[in-house]
Write a structure and sequence with these properties.
The structure is a homodimer. Chain A has 15 helices and two strands. Chain A is mainly α. In chain A, a hairpin with a 2-residue loop joins strand 1 and strand 2. The first copy, chain A, is globular. Chains A and B meet through helix 4, helix 6 and helix 7 of A and helix 4, helix 6 and helix 7 of B.
Chain lengths: ~350, ~350
């Protein structure tokens, strides 16, 4: 596992997003400008609500990937700016709808839009952002990009529905779970990276390489997100701990802990996750079991394997600062758990 | 008002959608086939829920408009089939989200999807249908059509948010109301008609004529819908009466009745629509007041004026069975109130 960062040496340089952020900083400023322009509407509630979500910050990881992928492909133009904005608008639209679906209270450390304004505007402003993203793609004028992002959007929606179906179902397999996160999370990472190669008109092999990088990074990213929901570190990210648990969401740590559980533990998981009969102390018990059964450690190991695949996928590209930043982004996404 | 059908002579031929339906029947069968194919997904809940909404029937008015507009423009190809399916998918997606937003119990005479499956799948399957519509447009390959329908989609979302804002606000003006229905309803009618001319590669003037036909028809259609919510006829359409009233939705009948109300009536409207403090007998009182103040009659008159504009817009096209069917569709949309 060459990609595993040595966790014993905290004093060493920590993996960081900073190289990636520095590399695309100017472009990202332009992306933010496009997003703000596109959120505008005479209906004042729309920019209010949308900017609450967008301006809340977040890492802007997905649009940064589009920008960096275009840079890696030595793209000299400006189309990647608008398309990175599209990617972020699609992502923000899915966040708004997710929070409605999940009844979430917090998003990126702020009260989520559905809590502040109610579910109704969140659904509709999500639709607005989504439509605006397509308008922007149409202005860009590439049917290939439109094809990649419209396909990604319907795969995301399929993944969200699949996730809804696996919720509260402790029979969910590792394969089911991976199919869900591939669709709901990794597909947009993959599309975001791929369109960097598309605007640069690079050969199909490079498009495929960037898509594979994004797909594997996206899977690793979601695996770590799922670990973080049971981690003390989580509070520092502005998210509540135990959201997935309270909703009965079946993530890889749960799949593993359940498959390794004894009869009494299986009863615990069924009661808390299938029947959603939860006592205040149950979350702590869940974390104890997840740790004791090695479920969090195995999930981390799994994330590292996908991270390694993401890095391997960059093989066709020559070494340099952009590639190094993309490699570092993988390490950051994984090691942020600690 | 040459378009007004004589309501005193019920024995005369009633305006009907039948000529339009007969004209596009074969094409519409092909459209339904495309819709069923596009709703398909390995995630079984998606086609289940989507087909509940789509197969529930409805008039398929919007895709029929695309088909008829293409026919009016003597379009010889097949592209109008897929694009009519896109229009219906976008419409169905907005219906799913509307029902979540409105907490509706009935849709096209059946329990609405949010009642059967809950709000969550309705939001996500709406997203799926919307994305699939864009995938289908991308396959069609026309950036002009993509531009028209992505623009229409964001205008619809804006209109829905505006409607949310005017809800419970008895200060809403006639102009505010018209802006809302233009966006949330008429824009898609306009786009549906326009793309018939686009695929046929007709001159801009004919595109604009069909767009104006659709826009004015859409406004008339929504005005009549708003009358029907206070009409005994409504039950026969498989919708409940008084939905708008119970939600405090401010439609033109209400705007007019409020502007013509005496002090005591204003108190009634404020209590029932702003504060949503409603007693069982209030709906009947509302209908009595709407009738006594001539609000329903004025709204019908307004619908007829937009209907006349829709028919006038068809002026550039020579007479013939397609034009006659489109004219009849206007009369039908208006006179269905009786």
């Amino acid at each position: 596992m060459g990609v595993a960062v040595n966790l014993d040496t905290d004093a060493q340089r920590k993996p960081s997003l900073d190289p990636l952020i520095a590399l695309v900083a100017d472009d990202l400023k332009a992306v933010n400008q496009v997003i703000v322009e596109r959120m505008d509407s005479p209906v004042a509630l729309i920019p209010q609500l949308a900017s609450h979500v967008v301006a809340a910050g977040g890492k802007r990881l997905r649009p940064m990937l589009t920008l960096a992928a275009a840079r890696l492909c030595a793209y000299p133009g400006r189309r990647h700016i608008g398309l990175a904005a599209c990617v972020e608008c699609i992502h923000t639209a899915t966040l708004l709808h997710d929070d409605v679906v999940d009844d979430s209270d917090l998003r990126r450390g702020l009260a989520s839009a559905n809590v502040v304004w109610g579910n109704k505007p969140s659904v509709l402003v999500g639709d607005f952002l989504f439509s605006r993203a397509f308008e922007l793609m149409v202005e860009d004028g590439s049917l290939r990009v439109l094809g990649i992002l419209s396909r990604a959007s319907s795969v995301i929606a399929e993944g969200e529905v699949s996730q809804l179906i696996t919720t509260n179902d402790t029979q969910t397999s590792e394969a089911d779970y991976l199919a869900v996160i591939r669709a709901k999370t990794a597909e947009l990472f993959a599309a975001a990276c791929r369109i960097g190669a598309v605007v640069a008109e690079r050969p199909e092999a490079e498009e495929a390489a960037l898509e594979a990088y994004g797909m594997n990074l996206g899977i690793a990213f979601q695996l770590i997100d799922d670990i973080l929901d049971y981690s003390a570190k989580q509070a520092t990210l502005g998210k509540t701990v135990g959201d997935d648990f309270r909703e009965g969401k079946i993530t890889l740590p749960i799949v593993l802990a359940f498959s390794r559980a004894n009869a009494e533990e299986k009863l615990f998981w069924r009661r808390t996750l299938e029947e959603l009969e939860q006592e205040p102390e149950d979350l702590e018990r869940a974390i104890t079991l997840l740790t004791a059964r090695g479920a969090l450690a195995t999930t981390l190991e799994c994330a590292r394997q996908y991270g390694a695949k993401a890095i391997d996928a960059l093989e066709p590209f020559p070494p340099g600062p952009v590639k190094a930043a993309l490699v570092d982004a993988v390490h950051f996404c994984i090691e942020r758990a600690y």
